[in-house]
Amino acid sequence: MKHITFHLDFISPYALLAFEHLPDALEGLSYSVSYKPLLLGALLKHHGQLGPAEIPAKRTWTYRHVLWLGHAHGIPIEMPASHPYNPLPHLRLALATTPDGTISRWVAETIFREIWRGGAEAGDAARLAALAARLPQVRDANGEEVKAQLRANTDAAIAQGVFGVPAYEVDGDLFWGFDGLGMLRARLADDAWFAGPQWTAVDQRPALLRSSKT
Questions:
Q1: Mind listing the domains of the chain with CATH numbers?
Q2: Which residues contact 197 (CB under 8 A, 6 or more apart)?
């Protein structure tokens, strides 16, 4: 049985879609999963990237695209009233339910669906309090231990080469995005393609280095 580490941030609609579709995408395979929350904003900052919602034209396309993917795959999804929003309370609440850096599928599902169904304000204080009351917690969601855990999860993901969410790691190999689920399935099924140069050496070539100077 192979093990998947699923890196996620609840702010990402693609992470929600991948989370919901994972059982169907991997149906018939034997595997286990660890779900690890991280802070996408810190990940993007480390790599010098903007999030899709920070680029106005891409923001419009992203929202249309994720709603279409939900429609096409039969996954319920509605945009929250505001987006982007601050995901830290949800991430810390998730990690408060566990003594380590991984959370259960039930916790991830509960939080994802709270945000991405109903079209309400994700950061509303009353809704966050009601959500917290539904989740059994073993640590203080606002305590230093949980905050440090979130930083550690994010730093570990960066060290592994994760550059966005959803990201999946299997035996040191990384896959990214909702549309990467097909590749993930093939990797779990030991497709021989992953032993060939298309995977192992595709980046071993010169690249044009762009300069900020004109």
A1: 2-197 (3.40.30.10)
A2: none
